[in-house]
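Narrative of activities, Objective 1.

The group set out to show that a structural description can be obtained from nothing but a protein's sequence at a throughput compatible with the screening campaign. Below is one input-output pair from the validation batch, recorded exactly as produced.
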Amino acid sequence: MASIAQEYSLFEIDRELDTFLDEIEEQIENRGAASTELLERFQRFCEAHGEKADRIGRFLRMMEARVQYCRSEASRLQERARISERKATQTKYMVMYYLRSRDLKKIEGREFTLRIQKNSQDSVRFTDET
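Output recorded for this entry:
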């Protein structure tokens, strides 16, 4: 059963079942009964059909769970981005308050120069390009 479900696609299994049904009907018309070998093969393909359907169902359930997980992760990451953006904005306001309260044009570090520009755009400048 498992090997049939692994080797054949759902369409191939369905096609085989149709073929077996035709052969069973033909044998019943000609001999009065279908051979046990044909009935056993038909039964194995019926079981493989069920197994294939279950595999497809499990795959779909797994993919749906993955979609849900990815969406929740995206939501979680968007929330982190909003929090980070809010922190960056608050820090910029704190720096602007610091500069204005001390009547400074800029403060310099080893890597960055923070200043308030006349057009109110915040600026970060690299002092060491390496």
